[in-house]
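Standup notes, structure subgroup. Blocker cleared on the pyridoxal-5'-phosphate input:
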Amino acid sequence: MSIAEQLLKIKQTIPSPAQLVAVSKTHPAAYIQEAYQAGQRIFGESKAQELQEKQQLLPADIAWHFIGHLQTNKIKYLAAFVSMIHSIDSLYLLQAINKEAAKNNRIINCLLQIHIAQEETKFGLSEQELNELLTSDAYKALKNISICGLMGMATLTEDKEQVRKEFRMLKQLFDQTKVTHFSGQEQFTELSMGMSDDYPIALEEGSTLVRVGSAIFGYRNYNS
Ligand SMILES: *Cc1c(COP(=O)(O)O)cnc(C)c1O
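Run returned:
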């Protein structure tokens, strides 16, 4: 099947208002162009310089989402145009993004990454760290970032019930966070969860942004 056919097949299974982030990392601009021509507008990348290079080559109305682990010295490559950063796991990083956003006279949309998997290696905040961050004065002083929701990655396992349990936990935390920290603020709407192997479960559990790569573009040469 072609990229366009795979894309359209997957899109049909995503109920509105949930949206598809087509994860194009490692793949050439031509693949992105093909998906773009099939109507896709949101693309996800996980390396700042790779994202910057692709942004320069491709149509200006693409919404670029950064989904990888972001180093503070790389923020400058994407601050001028990035549409959302999914993977923020510290106040320090948020402050650094705020600073680059201010230089560009922008407000950057951000998601806070929550650690929901069993693997220790995965990034993300605990529930307690999330609450500490959102109640801190340092966070409240940030004027050039907007927290639009939460993001998480489930354990890499064949056990679908485990995956479902983790997504359900994240959805509960999202609902609770919205009430506790964002009441009356309408931007807190996004729950980014689900990848090629588990996005149908994520959608059932309330995902609003699924990040799907290999199911659209095929296998990658390196994992990132
Ligand atoms: C690579 C990546 C994806 C997409 O993974 P697939 O299994 O190829 O769909 C989604 N989210 C993050 C954070 C990623 O790094």
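Discussed briefly. The longest strand covers residues 145-152.
Next: hand off to the docking folks.
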